[in-house]
TrEMBL record:
Gene3D superfamilies, sorted: ACP-like (1.10.1200.10)
Pfam families assigned to the protein according to its UniProt record, in alphabetical order: PP-binding
Residue span, Carrier domain: 8-50
Protein name: Acyl carrier protein
Length: 74
């Protein structure tokens, strides 16, 4: 999956335009980045990337969008 598709998935989850999702953007800059978004990200990672090993604790350590992209690549 290319970066544009990853960006689109993350933007959809965060309910923002894909143009607002850049690698260096802090996750907490998005108003929808909350506990529900963490659960949604866990589901997205499992469904689209087969990452059933990622949990809320790991996601809480993610600070910027690039951190999410790194997990998507593994």
């Amino acid at each position: 999956m290319d970066i544009a598709e990853k960006t689109r998935l993350l933007a959809e989850m965060l309910e923002v335009d894909a143009a607002e999702v850049t690698a260096e953007t802090p996750l907490d800059a998005y108003p929808t980045w909350d506990s529900m978004a963490v659960l949604s990200l866990i589901a997205l990672l499992e469904e689209h990337f087969g990452r059933a090993d990622v949990d809320g604790t790991q996601i809480r350590h993610m600070k910027i969008v690039a951190d999410v992209f790194k997990v998507m690549e593994k």
